[in-house]
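ESCALATION

Customer reports they have been waiting on this structure for their group meeting. Please prioritize. Original submission:
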Amino acid sequence: MDSPSRQWELGAKSWNGIRSLLRAVALAGLAATALWAWPWSRDLVEQIITRPQQFEMLPPPGSIPRGAESPRAREQAAASLRNPLMPTPENLAKGKVLYDTYCLVCHGAAGRGDGPVAGGALQPADLTMARIQAQPDGLLYDTIRHGFGLMPAYYERLAPEERWRVVLYVRSLGKGQ
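Update from on-call: job pushed to the front of the queue and completed.
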């Protein structure tokens, strides 16, 4: 039989072994956790941050949004698009409101290209000119939709029916109404 001091030495050694084993298991657990989380836990920190008005994310080339009009060249629009609205007083009144909201600032109240921001490098078209009035409705519609030269596109701001109402109102400017 071992002496009490010998028993104590054996007990202490076994506890040291158990402690070492526990330390090794704890370190292995921490290392496994760190290795498991390391590349993936940074994803939310290192992602691309999109702030409003920072940049526009464009859809893939050739894609057409659901419910949107299919893209076409100006010549195709001139030849194929017809105004589905009649120049009723109601449509002309709504067209005038839209014109005053979106067009007046450049083209002026009478459509002569003399709006408040016109001048210098910006010379908006005179919408009462015979050349403009002779253009097909589809071409005017396409110009409103896609813009032309320095004129911005209004496809996001005006619904198709609203664009046609603006076309009706532009026609009425040419008639002096």
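Sent to customer with the following note: Residues 43 and 149 are 43 Å apart (CA to CA).
Escalation resolved.
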